[in-house]
Design goal:
The complex is a heterodimer of chains A (430) and B (614). With 430 residues, chain A is an alpha+beta fold. Chain A contains 14 helices and 19 strands. In chain B, the strands form three sheets. A seven-stranded mixed β-sheet of chain B has the order 3-4-2-1-5-6-7, with helices on both faces. A six-stranded mixed β-sheet of chain B has the order 9-8-11-10-12-13, with helices on both faces. In chain B, strands 14-15-16 form a three-stranded antiparallel β-sheet. The chains are: A alpha+beta (430), B alpha/beta (614).
């Protein structure tokens, strides 16, 4: 949602088209690169990109994480044969990487292979976006952890509605650049225009250098505003958003994404711990966070099985599909100690979501899973308000009785998250 | 109206988009508040101008639709709000349009998914021009007694339960639209109610943020305390901390930032709101709650005791004498919508119409209980569909085939017959398809095409009454009725009509019962003895065979008679022949034939010298 990281490969692909365009041909930017996953036909790739066999190459994972050198995942100045072997040894292997934010475990699935560029100068550039302005950060000391040389970074704010061509780059860029100043200014202007027109929200090249007088990015980190996809579809050209490293989507999460894309309503699901006993089926982007907060607050972080939400008045059919996905996940295994599992059908007081209608979808799914729910010892707690909530609550209460599943039902008179402690206090037992 | 107020009880708004339901909720709120005028001045609907009908209490009123904001303003110069329901694709553009007008001061952007750069520009322009934006990605908000934005605050009973029809003393603002209503509920249960409440929206850059509204509340003497609900992600809450340090906020503020669980979860989890993601330590809910608490904000321990903290703060103000008792108005009753009453089982009404052949109210339309996709999958064909719609029966294959056979055989009989002739003449008079084929169809009846029904009737009568063929003819002669379905211009017993042969052979091979055909052929034996062209003709054949088909399908004689009387048998002729009429119509149009005028030499003029005097 909104700000999404994209692959280095895609960032460079877009730059190779956008930079010559926005600089009126003054900036040439070549992207000699290929992206390889487990399904890539390497022979075909080789035929389509004959330079792979002729050039010395660089290979690295392209999965939205940095510090690849530190993590021994950077393979530099090698032949195509060597690169293939190196990738084969690592493809689909789980590794733990260390970043400034901590350690993350994940599967290596995508590798970028590009032409190796011998170079000396390493520059740093980043373009960040903020409420009232965008900011350009530049340094002649690229290629390192930039925080360590932050004193060398110069910044330039570009207020909204200001044209980049009106800004004074001569004073902004450091004197030491000498004759390079002009081309770097052109490069930055073209980059900035791309950031604006392609709706990037973040772009960092650390480092970039020059070959034959033209800039070459040795690394690229970028995020785009995916809300702009309707404007940028052509420019982005079939851009796919990879999941953050270590958070590959399960088939169930992908199914919910599909449901989500089919409609104006919103459906989200992240499985946190499939063995967890507390499953949230919560309406609303805001309320769902509070339910998760409450579970964590009460000391049951390890038992929290999922984060998810549905909102925007989804149809009965969509709610049914979404609920089924959650129920399927939660009833796959019994708790190892035979304790009950909890389904929290929560939510605030809706503005316009029809409670009776969405609950009809939930009830249909519960009916379908009734045997499995009983087998896995599931108890249901409900709290909801909004249009037609009386009818919705009554229906779900009747459902519990009819199917013989313990179901407690509350309306707006009960505090929104009360059902969390009700479920956990009573039988949770740490 | 003061600068710090967005709405008063005379505020009128435009609704951008075809949102009658949201507008109705606004009008219901107005009526509950006993406003004098509806708060919806008009709709901006670029697809068409005109009116929408809405309820004002029990009465219906019309609200105008305009093509552009400019048009709306011309008629309603006092309206200064636009509730923008445009989709995320066009929301920015239409908001800009409203922002560029003199009149519109406040715009609410409902859509979720408006590109950030567009919103940032809108927010900046609005601030420069002293205007207010709420949203995007919000449900809006409410000012009790004055104005309600679109769908905010839910249904009428919720507005009543939380007393949102009259102002209280609390200014509320949240990030989340979904939670705003929950917030009103919590405030209502723990204080004297909401003075105003808004949701700024869960985007990364909401056009106005929590602090913008809190600063307004600070200036408003009617607001005694403030309640807010923030969210993990972004740094907007620190502006509140700063404002308190700068003494720009001095009123008691109860606030909670949600998303405290985020640090316990894997780093990449994106919550439901676009803005709800911490990029640095300062963005976390814990850090923000701590900073707010340190600045003097009343921060609960968790969402659980949010209500208690609100109550304590309110009670303290009350004890200090800072809050006056509210004289409770009695809001008028809003009649329940009929659809709602039906859903709740409170009313019933008898219907004026009944349909027993189709139902279009389900997800997929059905023909007599068979969904259309199944009709196609199971290859019902035209015959099968007519079976469902006309007979209300799932016909066996031979009956479906026979119906299709008949339709094909009767499809056209040349341009000279009265129906085709009329169609051609009408088409040549420059009329359209419908008029032309209608003029053809109206000629179908007892003389043209109607022999199908007649033949069925006559032969059935003979057979039912056990009359031998010869006696049948005699009886008909006595009654002075010409037997229908007998006789042809060219074809004779020696030169049979191939069309009849095809139908008769089909029936003999497939129909379990063809007794009426056998009977009709016996009659034909008698009539052809007199003249060899007095054969069972196409119309007769069809009529007789339809009776046999129905008998094969176990229809009783009485039922068959009813169907004949209904004109059922002619229907096959009409449907088939209409295809031919249309062919003639298209033919004439393609040929661009001119107006037809009948030649004089084909008319006998025999007009008397003068009329007879009477």
């Amino acid at each position: 949602m909104a700000q999404k990281g994209i692959r280095e490969f895609d960032a460079k692909r877009m730059m190779s088209i956008a930079l010559p365009f926005y600089s009126n041909g003054k900036i040439k930017f070549e992207a000699k690169q290929v992206l390889i996953d487990a399904k890539t036909d390497l022979k075909k790739l080789e035929t389509e990109n004959p330079w792979l066999k002729d050039e010395q190459l660089v290979a690295k994972p392209d999965q939205l994480f940095g510090k690849r050198g530190l993590n021994n995942l950077l393979y530099v100045n090698k032949s195509w044969v060597e690169v293939q072997n190196w990738i084969n040894e690592r493809m689909n292997k789980t590794v733990e990487i260390t970043q400034t934010t901590g350690k993350t475990k994940g599967e290596l699935t995508n590798f970028l292979v590009e032409k190796f560029v011998p170079h000396e100068e390493e520059y740093y550039i980043a373009i960040t976006t903020h409420r009232d302005n965008d900011t350009i950060h530049f340094s002649t000391k690229g290629g390192v952890n930039i925080e360590e040389v932050w004193d060398s970074v110069v910044t330039l704010d570009i207020p909204l509605f200001k044209e980049i061509d009106e800004l004074d780059f001569a004073t902004f860029l450091p004197e030491e650049l000498n004759e390079k100043k002009e081309i770097i200014a052109e490069f930055i202007k073209a980059l900035y225009k791309m950031v604006v027109e392609y709706h990037f929200v973040y772009l960092e090249l650390n480092p970039f250098t020059f070959v034959d007088g033209y800039p070459v990015a040795l690394d690229a980190v970028a995020k785009v505003d995916d809300y702009a996809s309707f404007q940028c579809a052509e420019m982005w050209n079939n851009l796919k958003f990879p999941n953050p490293f270590g958070l590959e989507k399960t088939p169930e999460e992908e199914k919910v994404d599909e449901l989500d894309e089919r409609t104006g309503a919103s459906l989200k699901l992240t499985v946190l711990n499939p063995e967890g006993r507390i499953w949230n089926l919560v309406a609303g982007g805001g309320a769902s966070v509070i339910y998760a907060d409450t579970v964590v607050d009460l000391g049951f972080t390890n038992e929290l099985a999922n984060y998810g939400e549905y909102s925007g008045n989804p149809s009965t059919e969509l709610t049914y599909g979404y609920t089924k996905t959650v129920l399927d996940l939660m009833t796959r295994k019994k708790d190892s100690q035979g304790r009950p599992k909890f389904l929290l059908i929560g939510g605030g007081i809706a503005n316009f979501t029809d409670i009776a209608k969405t609950f009809t979808g939930i009830i249909q799914a519960v009916e379908e899973y009734v045997d499995k729910l009983k087998e896995t010892n599931v108890e249901i707690y409900v709290r909801r308000g909004g249009p037609n909530y009386r009818e919705g609550l009554k229906n779900i209460k009747d459902m519990g009785k009819r199917l013989g599943i313990p179901t407690e039902v509350y309306g707006p008179e009960t505090h929104m998250t009360k059902i969390v402690s009700m479920a956990l206090d009573k039988k949770g037992g740490k | 109206m003061k600068n710090y107020e967005l709405f008063d009880k005379n505020t009128r708004a435009f609704i951008y988009g075809q949102q009658q339901k949201a507008a109705q909720r606004m009008l219901d709120f107005d009526y509950l508040c006993q406003r004098e005028t509806p708060s919806v001045a008009g709709f901006i609907t670029p697809t068409g101008a005109g009116y929408y009908k809405l309820f004002w209490g029990t009465k219906e009123i019309s609200i105008p639709r305009y093509l552009t904001v400019e048009d709306g303003i011309k008629d309603n110069p006092d309206a200064d709000v636009m509730v923008n329901f445009a989709s995320e694709r066009s929301c920015a553009e239409s908001t800009m349009e409203a922002l560029d007008t003199q009149n519109i001061r406040t715009i609410i952007m409902i859509a979720e998914g408006v590109p950030q750069r567009d919103v940032r520009k809108i927010a900046k322009l609005a601030k420069e021009r002293g205007k207010w934006i709420i949203g995007p990605a919000t449900v809006g908000g409410i000012k009790p007694g004055c104005f309600k934005i679109g769908n905010a605050a839910g249904p009428v009973d919720n507005i009543k339960d939380t007393k949102l029809y009259r102002p209280g003393s609390v200014g509320f603002v949240s990030v989340s639209g979904g939670l705003s209503n929950e917030g009103y509920n919590i405030v209502a249960r723990n204080t004297d109610g909401i003075y105003e409440g808004y949701a700024v929206g869960g985007d990364v850059y909401p056009a106005t943020t929590l602090i913008d509204h809190l600063l307004r509340y600070e200036l408003n003497p009617n607001i005694k305390m403030m309640v807010s609900l923030g969210e993990v992600g972004g740094k907007d809450e620190y502006q509140i901390v700063q404002a308190i340090k700068d003494k720009k906020i001095t009123k008691p503020l109860v606030m909670w930032v949600t998303g405290t669980c985020a640090e316990m979860l894997p780093g990449g989890v994106q919550f439901g709101h676009a803005g709800a993601k911490a990029d640095s330590k300062d963005d976390t809910a814990k850090a923000k709650n701590a900073a707010l608490r340190e600045a003097g904000v009343i921060v609960p321990n968790s969402f659980e005791d949010y209500g208690e903290k609100i109550k304590m703060t309110f009670e303290k103000l009350k004890a200090e004498g800072k809050i006056e008792e509210i004289e409770e108005p009695t809001p008028p009753n809003i009649p329940m919508d009929y659809a709602q009453a039906v859903a709740e089982g409170l009313v019933r009404k008898s219907t004026n119409f009944i349909s027993t052949i189709t139902d279009e109210t389900g997800e997929i339309h059905d023909y007599c209980g068979v969904p259309i996709d199944q009709v196609i999958k199971e290859k019902y064909g035209i015959g099968g569909v007519l079976g469902l719609l006309w007979f209300k029966k799932d016909l066996p294959q031979y009956a479906r085939d026979f119906i299709e056979l008949v339709i094909q055989i009767v499809a056209d009989h040349g341009p000279a017959v009265s129906g085709a002739h009329n169609t051609i003449v009408t088409a040549r008079a420059g009329k359209g398809l419908i008029e032309s084929i209608i003029s053809g169809i109206v000629t179908i009846g007892p003389r043209f095409g109607g022999a199908v029904n007649g033949a069925a009737k006559h032969f059935s009568w003979g057979l039912e009454n056990g009359l031998e063929a010869r006696d049948f003819i005699t009886e008909m002669k006595k009654k002075n009725v010409r037997v229908q379905g007998i006789g042809h211009r060219i074809h004779s017993i020696d030169n049979p009509d191939e069309r009849c042969e095809v139908m008769m052979n089909f029936a003999k091979e497939h129909f379990p019962d063809h007794s009426l055909l056998d009977y009709a052929l016996k009659v034909q034996d008698v009539t052809t003895m007199k003249k060899n062209t007095l054969i069972l003709n196409v119309d007769g054949c069809i009529g007789v065979l339809f009776v046999d088909m129905l008998k094969s399908l176990k229809y009783s004689d009485k039922e068959i008679k009813e169907m004949i009387d209904m004109g059922f048998f002619n229907a096959f002729f009409i449907i088939g022949r209409t295809m031919g009429f249309m062919g003639h119509y298209f033919d004439q149009k393609r040929l661009k034939t001119p107006l037809y005028r009948h030649p004089w030499d084909d008319i006998l003029y025999d007009v008397p010298d003068k009329p007879e005097k009477v």
